[in-house]
Amino acid sequence: MPDSTPLQNPDTKPLDAELREALARSIAQVNSVLLGKRHEVRLAFVCLLAGGHLLIEDLPGVGKTTLAHALAMTLGLDFHRVQFTSDLLPSDIIGVSIYERDAGNFRFHPGPLFTQLLLADEINRATPKTQSALLEAMAEGQVTIDGHTHTLPEPFFVVATQNPVDFAGTFPLPDSQLDRFMLRMSLGYPDAESERAMLASSDRRVLLESLPACLRPAQILALRKVVADVVASSALIDYVQRLLEASRMHGEVQIGLSPRAGLAILAAARAHAVLGGRGYALPEDVQAVFPYIAAHRLNLGSGARSSSNEIISRLIEATAVR
């Protein structure tokens, strides 16, 4: 995937200069904290601008929490981190209604969920009941407590992490929960040059504390409107539909991609186009985001000999771009 900064294409509807410059500064600042991960930082911004939620699967110590913190500081978002454990209750995340004797009624005390960027750390260590407490919030931007609906702040962005190796005491996310995450990615170890620069520099936590906000929440919402207006031609929609159909017909796939996955692909492709400075999405945008949207949604059959990533590569190679 090309790693260009947001540049304006003269053939498209102009993106507000202030927004364009603020977005470029934001990406550059996060890259200055999470060294050597320009591709992954770009994907995180794609997910944010497309209005989705991000799942990061990787080993401890590679920068998952640092990325979430850097995004929150750079984007000027309220930030809460919740460490998911087996004894965590839904009310610990959502909040609880407490009876106040003086007022003679119940008053809702919001939990850490009521923030703009929520880091759900090691989400698979919580019980399914607690995991499912996030479902309505991630899908609808609201929660219902005691029959009353409470709207979450905007923008609302969940970054969840899980360790793909240590499964002791974990509860694998069900398909319904995985489907709420638009993108799933890993960070991996940095390259030698980036790791050397990191070791020679100051502590990442100290650096995070000094980061200025490059964007405001209102600007993020404005960027999401720009993304929603990006043109996806009928030919591009046909291409996405062929990818969905190919996933369902593949011999090693038990359950293929759903229509909701198709909507996520188009939304992410539009965001990827905006980061590339275009007001229209191309097949290249679809191909750039497809692996990160499809891999955690494919349900492979018991006799599958290939990995999800291998199947996805074949789907892209075999599906014609017309």
Give an overview in words:
The chain has two domains: 8-228, P-loop containing nucleotide triphosphate hydrolases (Rossmann fold, 3-Layer(aba) Sandwich), CATH 3.40.50.300; 230-322, Helicase, Ruva Protein, domain 3 (Orthogonal Bundle), CATH 1.10.8.80. Residues 1-12 have low confidence and may be disordered. It has a five-stranded parallel β-sheet with strand order 2-5-8-1-9. The chain is built from 13 helices and eleven strands. The longest helix has 17 residues, at 17-33. The chain is globular. The protein is an alpha/beta fold. Helices cover 45% and strands 15% of the residues.
Cross-sheet strand order for the largest sheet: 2-5-8-1-9
Q: Percent of residues in beta strands?
A: 5-15%
CATH H-level name of the largest domain... which superfamily? P-loop containing nucleotide triphosphate hydrolases
Query: What letter string, H or E per element, gives the SSE order?
Result: HHEHEHEEEHEEEHEHHHHEHHEH
- How many structural domains in the coordinates? 2
CATH fold assignment of the largest domain = Rossmann fold
Global outline: globular
CATH architecture of the largest domain: 3-Layer(aba) Sandwich
Instruction: Give the C-level CATH assignment of the largest domain.
Output: Alpha Beta
Quantity of strands, as a count: 11
Radius of gyration: 20 Å
Terminus-to-terminus distance: 21 Å
The major pleated sheet works out as: 5 strands, parallel
Strand pairing plus helix content: what structural class?
alpha/beta
Low-confidence region ranges: 1-12
Question: What is the typical, i.e. mean, pLDDT?
Answer: 90
